[in-house]
């Protein structure tokens, strides 16, 4: 039997450490040599488009997919060698809800807890506490199929907390949910963070990353393009404001030349032109002064979407 090393004291502040982490399928690099550290209690995000390698990274952290090369430790342990021990520290919320539709809501929590070998005396009160946390107490005896998408997500999160994990892995926690359901979920995740749980989440929603993440890595095609807090990334890779102009589909693609010199950078997208400037209103006045009249104009703050566009030349949401 392999003995489990004790978690080194010096590493207590770092709960996940990846060095040159790589996963290949045939000759395709799904995760292409990424490195990052996550300290305890942080809310850490992997932000990137579909196919960037986010889920593959999560699966390696969760010990359900072995890495091709590189180093990875979770709570000081290698998930490839100590899968069950690593999973005992983790709560996992997969991209697709995989609740047991044959069981009632509360039963889902109990059954999952039994799978972890947790005793009945612990599970009953814990299930009730988690239903309360997930705002599902009144649905305890209901059928899973009768829950809304947001409720199913909350039940999946409640289920992932049955073993009091120190780290919660959330793969695209709010994909497919309506705005209200997303906000309720964000609030619950924020409470977990306040309670000291380390959150690792993947998302392709920039607003979600901005709301939830203390720090994130921007990933594209299996590589890390940038790393930092949302505010620091925006400061480093974008201007304070962005002026969005729509001139109509024909004109959008040809007008950029006439805008040269306004702001510090211009991006032409199929449906609009973006002028990056610290003062968006001043940029708009400069556009008018050139006799150019957009159909619509909007000044907004820079977002992580702008960071992604800057780093990859592509829009985050296709
Ligand atoms: N088992 C597999 N076999 C072959 N290729 C795979 C496998 N799993 C993932 N891939 C490929 O690896 C790349 C990264 O996939 P991954 O699911 O990690 O991306 P992602 O960033 O999580 O995107 P999504 O949000 O779509 O899940 C994709 O091109 C995907 O097609």
From TrEMBL:
Pfam families: ABC_tran
Domain ABC transporter: start-end pairs: 16-246
Domain of life: Bacteria
Membrane topology: Peripheral membrane protein
Compartments, record wording: Cell membrane
Keywords of this entry: Antibiotic resistance, ATP-binding, Cell membrane, Membrane, Nucleotide-binding, Translocase, Transport
Single GO MF descriptor: ATP hydrolysis activity
Family designation: Belongs to the ABC transporter superfamily.
Name of the protein described by the UniProt record: ABC transporter ATP-binding protein
Organism name: Arthrobacter sunyaminii
Organism lineage string: Bacteria, Bacillati, Actinomycetota, Actinomycetes, Micrococcales
